[in-house]
Amino acid sequence: MSVKILASLIPLLPFLGFIINGLGFRTIGKSLAATIGVSASVLSFGLSVWLFAAMTGSGVTTQEIHLFNWITTENTNISFSFLIDHLTLLFLLVVTGVGSLIHLYSAGYMHDDEGFGKFFSFLNLFLAAMLLLVMGNNFLVMFIGWEGVGLCSYLLIGFWNKNTAYNNAARKAFVMNRIGDLGFLLGIFLIYITFHSIDYNTVFSQALAGSPGEGVMVAITLLLFVGAIGKSAQVPLYTWLPDAMAGPTPVSALIHAATMVTAGIYMVIRANVLFSLAPFTLEFIGIVGLVTALLGASIGLLQNDIKKVLAYSTVSQLGYMFLALGVGAFTSSYFHVMTHAFFKALLFLGAGSVIHGMSGEQDIRFMGGLKSKMPITFITFLIATIAIAGIPPFSGFFSKDEILAQVFVHSPVMWGLAVVGSLMTSFYMFRLLFLTFFGTFRGTHQQAHHLHESPLSMTLPLLVLAVLSAAGGLINFPQLFGGGQWLAHFLAPVLGGEAHVAHLDHSTEWMLMGISTVGALASMGVAYSLYISKKQVPASDAVEKGMLSRLVYNKYYVDEIYDTLIVKPLSSLGSLISEFIDTYLVDGIVQLAGGLTIWVGRQMRYLQAGNTGFYVFSMVLGILIILTFNLLF
Amino acid sequence: MNALYLTLIPIIGAFVIYMAGSKNAKYLALFFSLAILGFGLSTLLSFNPEGGLQGVWSMPWLPKAGLYLAFGIDGISILPILLATLITPFIVITTFDKKLYREELFYALIILAQGLMIGSFTALDSFLFYFFFEASLVPVIFISAIWGGANRIKATLKFFIYTVFGSLFMLFALIFLYGETPGAHSGLIADFHKLELSSTVQAVLFACFFIAFAIKTPVFPFHTWQPDAYTEAPATGTMLMSGIMLKMGLYGFIRFLLPITPLAVSEYGHIAIILAVTGIIYGSLAAVRQGHAKRLLAYSSFAHVGLIAAGILVFSKDGLSGSLFHMFSHGINVVGLFFVVEIIASRTGTFELDKLGGITSQARWLSITFVVLMLGSVALPLTNGFVGEFLLLFGLYQYNPLIGFFAGTTIILGAVYMLRLFQKTMLGNAGSHVKNFADLSATEKWVLIPLAILVVTLGVYPEPLMKLTEPAVKQLIETHYLGR
Q1: Helices vs. strands in chain A: H and E counts, helices first
Q2: What gap in Å lies between CA B287 and CA B301, rounded to an integer?
């Protein structure tokens, strides 16, 4: 079969899975639905592996696949086409690979849910949308996937749609994403106007050949970045992501790890040529990333909901990825996308396993001592925690270290702040680990009775992800340890814009590495002494907190601020329009005109009321007026 | 000849339905609407996009005065005509589950309205256009006034007076233009296009045409008849008005305003565009706060047509292609959505969002089709709504980035009110009026499933429809566009 068909099948298979499970919901049995859903994803992964092998084997770096013309006018021609290059291949593997594990896990996790088939249908659609996003050969096909994952997140966050709070979270996710999407769309318009095309190849080669001026490039990249802010949950549009945990836990794993939030990173790496021509935007991205990294990490310090801690951790880790993009380290950013996909999927799935074992409990204050009851979940969660905390030798250490080194070259101050963030990361993750798995059980008797390790369909993905989280660093093993930096070489053809990858001398690199490792270990030590030695448990919500911790615990009241400053005023304006302005002002003028007509009509009525006296009177009056005129003029 | 058939068959059909009595009225109506659809499709198949005006039929009307009964189809009118032929069978089927008062009259009026509206799209003579433009009001008014809601008379009267008031300005403009034609005078629209008018004259004509079509469409601030009229009319009336009738206003902008007063468009077009874009935001914000499902959709439709009108007035290839395509999509989506809301209200007895909720667990097919139509309405890529909105917004952005931005807020606000509508009706716990909600009946499926399929098909592969309009749009711009 031709490459064209096989490559098209990669997004098409999950899409078919969506259609079949969607239309056949409730008529297709659960096991068949799971088989369809999982195999669609696994087959798509298999095809991605095949494509990867075929392309790297034959030395082909890019392949364009034209499918059909999509939107065409006299002026505009946008095709529905794919572009497969090294960046796409890497994303394909991570998306379908981690995606498949999440699918498999869901078969166990969602088994007792009445919406089982529907769930698989939506999961497949999510995958299809993400695949389309990374496979498009132009910005508008990316935009299809971009909005598609937004739709899927809406469907899945609000999956349990009887709960109004969940529905609101789903709506919030969609709307906040759309704010970003408007920026992205305007960016696409400006790209089209500037380059008369939105195909990657044309746009990038033209941009490299003769930059149309930094002003335009800054405008384009800032608009695109607005889209990334929404999709990848950066300040100020990050508040939807923590709320997104309303969905079933595998959905969180999918959103936070394999799909959706990494879309923003993908977009910047994809358009690295444009971003590199706009240093101002890069600087801005770096600052936004850093602020997000610190903000997310600090909120994570005090949260007590296992999923909420992980959600803010994602916000923070995404911040690091954008920080890397901001300093021009596109490879490092992708490296972290990948390792993060492994360990964050693992953490969420592990959290799901915990919640599953705890009969739905999510509050870590009511957990504790789970390590003996759920050994596989514990070991894998531990590996993921070490990985995300940046402690060697697991994957997160390498990817985060690479980012920090690149940031140091760019600005030691930013490096310092970034290290502070990574200390917080280590603290909140070990706090989570210790409170959940160590100490004594603090839940109810009933929960203790039910407590069990999860079934194989759930633990198997955990084990696979644990291996990946542990060993994922090898893919870009630093030269310092004699590594070949395979990833950097592999991505080089895509990174036309990565001009200034810094090389540190070895002593500095050792020093930076030492500082961040020692720091992470120290944070772990603090968490150990607080939650294991001193056996502290975070106070219940009823206890009065200090000002600062109340501020952090309530997420700096950002949601409340948005509500007061944006949502409420707009909503009031809506009420004002529909209840007052439209009825009394705009329509008032119309009514006045109508009323005036009626009034005049009423006055005129006397003219033909059949009153002979009035007729004679007006006749005489008329004659008098005419005569007077005649006499005067 | 096709242009004549498309206009005449429904008018004859309406007469036949009325005469045949109420017993078989609905089936006769379906028969005629399908027959017209057949004619529409055959017209489509034989239509040559590069061929200019086709299917022409003409007969002297008042030959000495240069007036003709002339019908024809070109790349501008083909999509509105197709829409009218395609959507009417669905509108007819939406009523099949109902027992109505005086069915022969009801169905005759639907088909009559269709014929008169198609007439306005096929008319080549301006006074003939004017006749259809006005005459099509009559059946719609009667449908609203006889089968409508509690405040139907007041709302209908307002609608009637308001639109007729607007048309007077158009009539004045047409008579003036007629007087300007050389020789023995002519009322043909094509002859009006050839006139070279001074900028002052164009300004006056621009104002006249704008008021007439802005009321019909409606464009802010001439819209206040619309929420009441849409809400009080029976679903059928609302579908006719929003699905087909308002396209007469948008069509008028393209057919009369742009080519006859291009100087004025380049000079004063921005005012009209700003009004239309204001309407997008204004209508969206109003929709966000509506508690009445039908009224919410009315404001949403008002916001959407504001975008189409703005895109037309930009007078660019993207804007015009986008507007013609979006008129078609909007017709499909709005008819589907009004039907969804009608289904909900007929089962629960209320349009009030506060009393609804939780329907989705009881009605799967309604949920699926509602979601698809909603996605079309919020312009998700790969739905029909996206294609049009993308081109319209692109056109507006090229005109002025700031205006493009303000118009673009529709993709945010549209999501806000549509998701709210969906959540309040379908999600959450069952509302006070939701008990034993039955899923779509067979006839309801016959409407909503094909419409949902159209939403997706046209979104994935819009090219065939785009190709129909492309040469005509190009020709219109190359002949009449004067720059800014």
Answers
A1: 27, 2
A2: 9
Count CA atoms closer than 13 A to A568's CA, side-chain side. 7
The Cα–Cα gap between A408 and A403 comes to: 9
User: Residue B416 and residue A175: Cβ atoms within 8 Å?
Assistant: yes
* b/e map A56-71, b = 16+ CB within 10 Å: eeeeeebbebeeebbb
Which helix (H) or strand (E) covers residue A352, if one does?
Answer: helix A330-357
> Which residues from A are below 8 Å from B322, CB to CB?
73
Name the residue type at position B298. A
b or e along A603-616 (b: 16 or more beta carbons within 10 Å of the residue's beta carbon)? eeeeeeeeeeeeee
> Please, what is the Cα angle at B209 between B204 and B211, to 5 degrees?
95
Q: Give the residue ranges of DSSP H helices in A84-115.
A: 86-109
Report the sign of the C-alpha dihedral through residues B338, B344, B350, B356, in that order: negative
Which residues of chain A have a CB within 8 Å of the CB of B227? 582
| Nearest CB to B411; choose among A178, A192, A570 | A178
Q: Residue B295 half-sphere exposure, CB side, CA atoms within 13 Å?
A: 22
Structure tokens at A308: 């909420």
Contact B393 A185 (CB under 8 A): yes
The 10s digit of each residue's pLDDT in A123-137 is: 999 999 999 999 999
DSSP secondary structure string for all residues of B16-51: HHHHH-STTHHHHHHHHHHHHHHHHHHHHHH--GGG
Q: How close is the nearest chain B Cα to the Cα of A550, in Å?
A: 31
Search chain B and give the residue with CA nearest A580: B286
- Residues B340-396: tens digit of each pLDDT: 999 999 999 999 999 999 999 889 999 999 999 999 999 999 999 999 999 999 999
d(CA B134, CA B160): 10
Q: Rounded to whole angstroms, how far apart are CA atoms A515 and B299? A: 60
Supply the pTM of this predicted model: 0.93
According to DSSP, the residues that pair with B62 across neighbouring strands are: B67
- CA–CA separation, B305 and A288 (whole Å): 38
Task: Kindly report the number of other CB atoms within 10 A of residue B446's CB atom.
Answer: 16
- Structural tokens at position A282: 């890069």
Q: How far is CA A432 from CA A76, A256, B71, in A?
A: 53, 18, 76
> Comparing C-alpha atoms, which of A65, A66, A67, A60 is closest to residue A86?
A60
Show the tokens assigned to B310: 């703005």
CA B406/CA A119 separation, integer angstroms = 37
> Cis (ω within 30 of 0) for the bond into A236?
yes
Q: What is the 3-state secondary structure (H, E, C) of A513-567?
A: HHHHHHHHHHHHHHHHHHHHHCCCCCCCCCCCCCHHHHHHHCHHHHHHHHHHHHH
What's the helix, strand, coil split of chain A in %, to 5? 75, 5, 20
Report yes or no for ipTM above 0.90.
yes
Decide: helix, strand or coil at residue A350. Answer: helix
Neighbour count for residue A190 (Cβ, 10 Å) = 21
